[in-house]
Design brief:
There is one protein chain. With 375 residues, the chain is an alpha+beta fold. It has 3 domains: 99 residues, Rossmann fold (3-Layer(aba) Sandwich); 70 residues, 2-Layer Sandwich (Dna Ligase, domain 1); 168 residues, ATP-grasp fold, B domain (D-amino Acid Aminotransferase, Chain A, domain 1), CATH 3.30.470.20. 30% of the residues lie in helices and 27% in strands. It contains 12 helices and 17 strands. Strand 11 and strand 12 form a beta hairpin. The longest helix has 17 residues. The N and C termini lie far apart (44 Å). Adenosine monophosphate (AMP) binds next to strand 14.
Length: 375
């Protein structure tokens, strides 16, 4: 029976199609989750080959700015989302201009794509961040170092990921046999002499993240935060529950909820936090998409972050984010994925491989999640 009402008319029913911009492992896991709900996925990406095509119902291979291809894509799907935050905002604007529904919207994408706008947004909702300074050239970098002090981290304003486009400016250049001026110039060149943000180096106790979801009607669900350990700027391990105080969890969850509501967000977000000695948190950054530190939810929760995202954008009720198990998720990076057979042999280890053909250094090839049932 047809029902009146905006919320109902925006629902994508089983057999409907979710359009996904981007075809990496996140698109692959979104497609798998959608399939479980009886929904189809259509991937739009420029690559000839990628992990998501193998499991999606259809694909469009075209540049993100190909208006003709975007129009045909918009006509072929019921709702559109993206699986990486470097999709051009222009692409989302073209699609919405064509009358397509894109979730999360262009504003969330624009805020998350620019580290300076992201930090000032976080502060505008009352969250703390590392001290920061906008850097456009060598002289503003020098001014920033005077204000913020060393050590500091210089990061490109845009298009950074997995520790790429960032470098630490140490407190003692002499250890490297450089003058301060030389060390400053080296850092500027290392990030490609591009518009950047200089951040104070935060002496955190640990890093946690909150994976949160918001539905179109404003309902919010939040997963338990994992503790995340990085090496070389790349996430290696997420451990849930994180060994932090309840007050820390409450603060991180409250900030995540605020980010979701302030952006009128629909879908899943991943918010990364530094936990300080006193248990308070600072926002590091957020990703307007499903997040690597939420991969454990596939095996440790009834409804994973991927299913939750599909539910949110398809206008379904959000699922219960409760955890039935404790979990340790480890990324398989580069040739670590060669040990897939040993992983498959290990009881209680859930193995996820992304079907990438080439195991280049630093490339996320898969992940494993070790479960421990909660007593
Ligand atoms: P990002 O790409 O900003 O998430 O940075 C990657 C990793 O570098 C973070 O997860 C931290 O481990 C570290 N990092 C980034 N920014 C800072 C900072 N301001 N102070 C200390 N460590 C940082």
């Amino acid at each position: 029976m047809a029902m009146a009402g905006e919320a109902h008319s925006r629902t994508v029913a089983p057999n409907g199609t979710i359009g996904i911009l981007g075809g990496g492992q996140l698109g692959r896991m979104l497609s798998l989750a959608a399939a479980r709900l009886g929904l189809k996925t259509h991937i739009f990406a420029p690559e000839e080959r990628n992990p998501a095509y193998d499991v999606a119902s259809s694909r469009t291979i075209a540049p993100y700015t190909d208006e003709k291809a975007l129009k045909a894509f918009a006509e072929a799907v019921d709702v559109i989302t993206y699986e990486f935050e470097n999709v051009p905002v222009e692409t989302v604007e073209i699609l919405t201009g064509l009358g397509a529904r894109v979730s999360p919207g262009a504003r969330a994408l624009a805020v998350a794509q620019d580290r300076i706008i992201e930090k000032s947004f976080a502060r505008s909702i009352g969250a703390r961040t590392a001290p920061y300074f906008a850097v456009d050239d060598l002289s503003s970098l020098e001014a920033g170092l005077k204000e913020i002090g060393r050590p500091a981290i210089l990061k490109t304003r845009r298009l950074g990921y997995d520790g790429k486009g960032q470098t630490v400016i140490s407190a003692d250049a002499r250890n490297l046999g450089l003058t301060w001026e030389e060390a400053t110039r080296k850092a500027w060149e290392e990030i490609g002499a591009r518009p950047a943000i200089l951040e104070g180096f935060v002496e955190f106790e640990c890093e946690i993240s909150v994976i949160g979801a918001r539905a179109a009607d404003g309902a919010i669900e939040l997963y338990d935060p994992p503790e995340n350990r990085h090496r070389g700027g790349i996430l290696r391990t997420s451990i849930v529950p994180a060994d932090v105080e309840d007050e820390t969890v409450d603060e991180a969850r409250a900030i995540t909820g605020k980010i979701l509501s302030e952006l009128d967000y629909v879908g899943v977000v991943g918010v990364e936090f530094f936990v300080l000695k006193d248990g308070s948190v600072m926002v590091n950054e957020f990703a307007p998409r499903v997040h690597n530190s939420g991969h454990w939810t596939i095996d440790a929760c009834g409804v994973s972050q991927f299913e939750q995202h599909i539910r949110a954008i398809a206008g379904w009720p959000l699922g219960d984010p409760a955890r039935h198990s404790d979990a340790v998720m480890e990324n398989l990076i580069g040739d670590e994925a060669d040990k897939w057979r040993d992983c498959a042999r290990t009881r209680q280890l859930c193995v996820h491989l992304y079907g990438k053909r080439e195991a280049r250094a630093g490339r996320k090839m898969g992940h494993v999640t070790q479960l421990k049932r909660r007593s």
